[in-house]
Specification:
The structure is a single chain. By secondary structure, the chain is of the alpha/beta class. The protein has an eight-stranded parallel barrel, surrounded by four helices. Bound molecules: 2-phosphoglycolic acid. The site of 2-phosphoglycolic acid has 13 residues, from strand 8.
């Protein structure tokens, strides 16, 4: 059985109260999920609460942040750096198309962010939009997320995703895992995870509902 990563990207969603409710309804630890790494990437404001929950419940969940400063500590108003993130998380999403589009992040910015993640012992979950997206050195975990599939209910085909995953791994020998993201649901997750070169999913909208996310993990 291959190892899978099932990652929730909550984006800019959930208050403290809503996150607590989500956790109460999400009974992950009842599941036997030895081959699945389940990672929640909440907004920064919720990382501390989720970390406490994990410690108090001996939970198998892992945490990731959705961004990282390209700088170390210092006079960078509004930024959160790797040293701060690593107190709570093991992973960081870098290069999501929403950040490229809405915050004008460039390939150069993203390389600096990957560097910062590595320097602080965080594993980058590096998002690519197609097989030509530049991937910085040091990335081992990639999420293929075609823009047309994000939040549209219109996922790419598992066959095309498998083709891209294979190409990406051939071109970049250090990339161990390629995940798929874009309109993943409990009803389609296993069409992706049964493909030999797809190692899991980055789930946006469907991860906001704890029962749907649980079903995605079970069906993966
Ligand atoms: P979606 O988002 O699952 O809502 O399509 C995926 C993502 O943007 O990571």
């Amino acid at each position: 059985m291959k190892n899978l990563f099932i990652i929730a990207n909550w984006k800019a969603n959930k208050t403290e109260f809503e996150a607590k409710d989500w956790l109460q309804r999400f009974m992950i630890d009842d599941l036997r999920i030895t081959n699945k790494e389940v990672i929640i990437c909440p907004p920064f404001t919720l990382l501390s609460n989720l970390k406490s929950y994990i410690l108090n419940h001996n939970s198998l969940l892992k945490l990731g942040s959705q961004n990282i400063s390209p700088f170390d500590a210092g006079a960078y108003t509004g930024e959160i750096n790797g040293d701060q993130i690593k107190e709570f998380a093991d992973y960081v999403i870098i290069g999501h198309s929403e950040r490229r589009q809405n915050f004008s992040e460039t390939d150069e910015d993203l390389s600096k962010k990957v560097e910062m993640a590595k320097k602080n012992g965080l594993t980058p979950i590096f998002c690519i939009q197609d097989e030509n997206t530049q991937i910085p050195a040091g990335v081992s975990l990639v999420a293929y997320e075609p823009i047309s599939a994000i939040g549209t209910g219109n996922p790419d085909t598992p066959e095309n995703t498998e083709k891209i995953a294979t190409l990406v791994k051939e071109k970049n020998k250090n990339i161990e895992h390629v995940l798929y993201g874009g309109s993943v649901m409990s009803s389609n997750i296993n069409t992706f995870t049964t493909m030999p070169n797809i190692s899991g999913a980055l789930v946006g909208g469907a991860s906001l509902d704890p029962l749907e996310f649980l079903a995605i993990i079970k069906n993966a």
